[in-house]
Amino acid sequence: MDRKNILETIRSPKDIKDLDVAALRMLADEIRAFLLDTISRTGGHIGANLGTVELSIALHKVFESPAEPIIWDTGHQGYTHKLLTGRAGLFPSLNSFGGMNRFVTRTESEHDLIEASHAGTSLSVALGMALARKIRGEDRPVVAFIGDGALAEGMALEALNHAAVENAPMVLALNDNGFAISPGFGALHEAFQHGRARALFEALGCRYIGPVDGHDVAALVEAFTEARKPGPLAVVHAKTEKGHGWEPAKTHPVRQHFSFPFDVASGTLSSGAPPKPCQDVAAAEIAKAMETDERICCVTPSTLYATGLAPIFQRWPERCFDPGMEEQHAMTLTVGLALDGMRPVIAYQSTFMQRAFDQVIHDVCFMNLPILMLGMRSGFAGYDNPTHHGIYDLAYLRPLPNLTMLYPKDGFELAAMVAETLRNPAGPTLILMPYGPVDEIDPAVADEPPAALSLPQVVRGGKDVTVFTVGNTYKAAAAAVEDLRARGVDAGLVNLRRLKPLPEDELAALLVAAPRAVTIEEAVLDGGVGSALATLAMDRRIAVDVLRIGIPCTFAPPGSNDELTKLFGLDAPGIAAKIAARWPEWAK
């Protein structure tokens, strides 16, 4: 078969069943070329997917998807799987609104069994499906595909502990590239790197097959053929290289895990360096504080690249800890540090902080410990899966006793809030910040005393309506207020800053000042800040007509901030339209 035509003939996994090993190797080369060509133009998880080409081919060669489903952990490494299931035509739409998802998703194909983007879930799902088959007397296997970094997740280890004793029709495909997103860490990583994996899995009662060269498709087909035979849980341990076959990934495996559009030859970004993100502002203040206070230390679970803390980890390695993809442990680790006199800072992407919710309640807030939590990517989080959006953080964290929640509107407020919290810690404090570049500093607040940053900022007063805004909606809200004022409406603007505990007396006075109020938040409305202000008005018997603007109870699709704020009416025109719909006399 002509090498250049193999991929073009693939419409479903059935199309590779009759290919011999030589053809499968040609197909792997062709897929790598296709991925580099398309993803260099769209951006995407290039390094993660170049490392799983042969693994994906072998899985679809041996197993009968979707009847023998492959459960992809996290799902970002499923690009070859998408190609083998007939989605080559979707790749040009990657990272565009309504286009192909970066992750496996049930909305695209019957071969994508679950929605995934949080790590560590595949073993539990696969075991549940395998047990259902065992109950029915069926022996068709279910495959859990998981990376070595994700296997350290507490949920994954719980599932492994269970699966190893169930004798259900299940196969564990372990993609061991020595990385999570950041370089691998911990005892499991060391065991896999130093030949102790067999002893570990066999001690649990598993059938261990490996280690197998994860880029030798013939060896992988042989291993999976053996693994699908009935018996205890089979573990196929494949050693792979992140970014395999692409030279730039060898020197930048973390950066090339995911990339924006890039030059294939050099790996450099096509658009140059991205603008300064919010987390870099916070990190700069943390570094200043660490220079003079040896009690300050930093923790982040595996996403160091997204926190701005990498220079701090390099400068003070003895005070910095990345335990890997272990969100629950990382949170309670800070509890121990705080109890023994340290001043810990823990940084999460907002979506991953959900995984440590119980620890925040039970371990941090209940003991009222001086821990600074940084929540990155609060609000809309771009083109990652819908589950990556940080649009639930206000609703699920606001009810917690002892927690202080701050949301700055610009770089100055962010830096000042971090610095003040580190100087004068008082219980657990969460500072949220949005995805994307930091907004310019507002000179109007540059001379405010630190204490003022926990009080509402009255940007301008208004006799007709007061617009209350949360940090990441400030610019759109300000533009909407200017639009109202141009129509003759005396509209005021308030930057809330502290979302919990709400400064109720100050806010009550502002609610009294105008007969109408608008709240704007890039978060779900149920349980959000708008609901809190409406409740405050009711409790204080303030006669004010409150319009809450935010996100309905839904899962938002992937998209840029501009696309999603427009979709949900959170851009300036959308806000103005919602206000005009509520009070038609202002529409003219």
Can you describe what's shown?
The model has no long low-confidence stretch (mean pLDDT 92). The protein is globular and about 75 Å long. The protein has 588 residues and is of the alpha/beta class. It contains 22 helices and 17 strands. Helix 5 runs parallel beside helix 6 (154-163), helix 11 packs parallel to helix 17 (411-423) and helix 18 crosses helix 22 (572-582). The longest helix is centred in the first third of the chain and has 22 residues, at 21-42. 36% of the residues lie in helices and 15% in strands. The chain folds into 3 domains: 3-251, Rossmann fold, CATH 3.40.50.970; 278-443, 3-Layer(aba) Sandwich (Rossmann fold); 455-586, Rossmann fold. 51% of the residues are buried. Its EC number is 2.2.1.7. It holds the Pfam family Transketolase_C. Pathway: Metabolic intermediate biosynthesis; 1-deoxy-D-xylulose 5-phosphate biosynthesis; 1-deoxy-D-xylulose 5-phosphate from D-glyceraldehyde 3-phosphate and pyruvate: step 1/1.
Can you give me a brief rundown of this structure?
This protein has 588 residues and is α/β, with parallel strands linked by helices.
